[in-house]
Specification:
- The structure is a single chain.
- With about 170 residues, the protein is α/β, with parallel strands linked by helices.
- It is about 35% helix and about 10% strand.
- It has one domain: Rossmann fold (3-Layer(aba) Sandwich), CATH 3.40.50.360.
- Helix 1 (about 20-35) links the parallel strand 1 (about 5-10) and strand 2 (about 35-40).
- Helix 1 (about 20-35) crosses helix 4 (about 145-165).
- The longest helix has 21 residues, at about 145-165.
- This is NADPH-dependent FMN reductase-like domain-containing protein.
- Pfam families: FMN_red.
- It comes from Rhizophagus clarus.
- InterPro entries: Flavoprotein-like_sf, FMN_Rdtase-like_dom, NAD(P)H-dep_reductase.
């Protein structure tokens, strides 16, 4: 059986990023609960800035948009769009703890629009958007709220299912 490979890209470059911590936890949960799938966390921190226009307030983090912009460019002689027809799942968090905090939900909405323009297919449910993320983790990196961990596992299952449905033979 072939392994379904998931590329994990964190929208933050900050050393102690909670989103990076969340991605690492998703990687661990995938290893423990999703047979035939693995998450490789991509380090894109050394990419030069492609576009100086940064939008962080309720939108796509500039460094993440930069990585997408770079990866979406096809060199002369390469074949097609690298993202077209690929399945993608989005998880995110926010440090905000005020009532009604969306936990990255608005940024995820904007990201979904950009990914749709690249012909990617987004897993819609469950939505993983964690507010007050500074209080979301145990010392060992696991999430305090086990419902969130269960939701991440379900999201990963849905991603693998969708990815296999969209899969074309690799070259």
């Amino acid at each position: 059986m072939s392994i379904f490979k998931i590329a994990g890209i964190c929208g933050s470059l900050r050393k102690d990023s909670f989103n990076k911590k969340l991605l690492i936890r998703a990687q661990q949960l995938c290893f423990e609960h999703i047979n035939g799938a693995t998450i490789e966390i991509i380090d894109w921190s050394q990419l030069p800035i492609y576009n100086q226009v940064l939008k962080y307030n309720f939108s796509i983090p500039g460094p993440l948009k930069n990585a997408i912009d770079w990866a979406s460019r096809v060199a002369i002689g390469d074949r097609g769009q690298v993202f077209a027809g690929k399945a993608v799942a989005i998880i995110g968090s926010s440090p905000s703890f005020r009532p009604g905090a969306a936990g990255s939900g608005r940024a995820q909405f904007d990201l979904r629009k950009s990914l749709a323009c690249l012909d990617m297919v987004t897993v819609n449910k469950p939505l993983i958007a964690i507010p007050d993320v500074g209080h979301a983790f145990n010392e060992d990196g696991s999430l305090i709220n086990k419902h969130i961990e269960s939701s991440i596992i379900k999201l990963l299952q849905n991603l693998v299912k969708l990815g296999k449905q969209l899969k074309v033979d690799p070259e």
